[in-house]
Prior knowledge:
Shape: elongated
Order of helices and strands: HHEHEEHEHEHEEEHEHEHHHHH
Strand content: 15-25%
Oligomer: single chain
Structural class: alpha+beta
Number of strands: 10
Distance between the termini: 32 Å
Low-confidence stretches: 69-79
Number of domains: 2
Largest sheet: 6 strands, mixed, barrel
Helix content: 55-70%
Amino acid sequence: MLFTELLKMAGLSLVANKLRTLLTMLGIIIGVAAVIAMVSVGMGVKKNVVDSISRLGSNMLIIMPGSFSRGGPRGAAGSVTTLTYADAEVIKDKIKNIDYVSPTVQSSYQIVYGHENWNSSVIGVIPEYVAIQSLELSSGLFFSEHDVDVRNRVAVIGSTVATNLFASVNPVGKKIRIGNAPYTIIGVLASKGQSSGGQDQDDVVLIPLTTAQERLIGITYVRSINVQVSEADKMDEVQSNIEKLLRQRHRIRAGAEDDFNVRNLTSLMETMTSTTTMITLLLGSIAGISLIVGGIGIMNIMMVSVTERTREIGIRKAIGATYSSIMLQFLIESTMISIIGGLIGIIIGIGAAQAISKFGDFTTVISGLSIVASFGFSLFVGIFFGMLPARKAARLDPIDALRYE
């Protein structure tokens, strides 16, 4: 009964000073909204990074020519020529715990169909590339091992290329020109969208590896070898075995640095996830500072309220109000400010996160944990910073309070 009465009194006190109450809440509203919005942005960055790496394939190792630690100026990507198709075949044959191996070469070309043309990345691959990259076809077929063996001029195009060259016409069976030579389109890839770096993953043309090497680009080496390991806990073992095998094949002396490097995407994902988590915590912490500022605002206003209501407090104590009831009344007022401000802040924070996602062309992830944590912290701030004014009010001497003007 007492609590209900105190709740009503606190509500009436807040309503009686609407503008002051609203301005006091503003710090909490901004703080809660900022925490939710900033954490949503951080979680969105994390999701984009993880999705981008996952699109490259699960349990992936990527072997690139050149050394990480090579001194002096380094050549452009793909300019080092230390890896071959034969290296990929030996890795597939001799290394255990491997599901798929796909060497690749890549270059940019103008793709021509009739009077239409489009600049795109042409990638030479083998059929296992489909499984490694988790590719799907929206129409047609992917090329076969036979196409690789006989260097057929066939192509599978991404949806961006298909849209820009063919509009609404089905490209399967049509002929395009790449490097002044005709290629028959046998399939169209399902859309994969943009990577976390903003690159269009659908702006590609895939052709048989040997066709790209010998009939298009005119090279004998490969620019990367993608390896999918069968189990995640075998990644380090497989990476070590690949490094030993390639050192033997390339006749690298003991103590000399490798002429290749192996990138472990699982380790990369762990590193990137850890980094983006720290960024998310940093953004949330910075936004959380405004909650502290809001709490200080609550304390200041409640101290003013205690001063203004000194005679009221004196009268209540004179007619029997206890220390705990006076203290509870002011704690309820500060807590109500935090609760209402927190709820409004949650609505604004969710709205801000959705607006960033919609108008900023950026994916945000609204976390239930961030909502609960920010609201819980706002509640704690209200109670903590309301404690000092409440104690001051409860400890007033009733005789001094009645004399106060």
